[in-house]
Amino acid sequence: MVASVIAIFVIIYASKQYSHVLTYYAFPQGDIGHAMAALTDVRSYTRAAIGYDDQDLINQMVAAHDKSKATVEEYLEPIRASIVTEVGKKSMAEIEAAIEAYFLIDQEILELGSTTDIINNRIAQDRAVSDMAPAYQKAYNALEGLMNANIDLGDETQASLNRTMAFLVLAIIIIVLVSAAVA
Description:
It is built from 4 helices and no strands. It has 183 residues and is an all-alpha fold.
């Protein structure tokens, strides 16, 4: 009976910890990955818009750019909601600052180069290399840093759960052996 009571409490604890890991570390990793992919799409559509010389194609790329930009924001919302640690809060602040800086540069370049004006396109292309690329990399790295922090925290919690389960198994074995000896 004692072993059963201990097992029930440890299983409830492990279940709650596992649920916590999924909610705050595993699920956000998917959102972070989607945000990273959408951010990459934003960059790709900007590069396409400033590279094309057909206004219809440019307009299509600008529309796709705007959609991907909105998608980044959509994925940031659940990430913000899942932040519970100081490391996560710090990472989220870095992400938001880096993405905001990137979007400002990106918008300037898009406005400058999303025309058929060859001179403006060339200026926009040069700025895409000199200004936009480093800003993009900083934003991407910030998202990647949060993902890595979540992976580390998830790994730590998994190790803790593994130790708890090993303790549970050992405790039950000891209680069964003691019970058998007493019986």
